[in-house]
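Section 5.1 Outputs to date
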Amino acid sequence: MSLKVNTLKTEVLVQCTEPPQAPFQFHLHGEPIKTVEHFTYLGSIDTQDCSLNMEIQKEDKLCLTSIWPIVRDRVFSNNNLRIGTKAAVYRIVISILLYGSEIWTLHNCKKRILENFNIICLHNILRLSWKDKTTHDELYNRTQISSIETIMAQRHLRWLGNTMRMPEHRLQRRILYGQLAGGNKSQTKELKFAYTVIFWYIER
């Protein structure tokens, strides 16, 4: 029994630190393989420049077009539901919005976009308007829902804990505990990635 690769269903995604001088060409058994700028793998979008823009836009579109109208009309606008019930439903929306965020590295502008969506939803849960002049901390306390940055930090640390408990031969753990192969120790400061991330969260 042998494995046969279907060239019509196979795509190649090239990720480079610098733009290539000429487009890459890949062939299998003399047949060319299509080179793409992005493709979806295990539900997440991988791109040539390793950007998260398309991934966030996909999650935002899913929440805003498919989930948000239903939740807003049937849950947030329902006066017969308690705040705790609405918050529990919204946590499901957050889990969809932040799918795969355990390994995200976001810029501040992307964090603000996600946090603005979070604040709008919290206002809807509490049936508040912009005229009420409610602080973000009050919204978090009344709904028992944290900010997006806090939720992502918890997800990152949970992922780190799961990876650190893996057997030593697992690739994820080897990368997490990886060190620089060369260079002067005083210059490279061979800090392990795991400890670097943990110390960063502690300092914050």
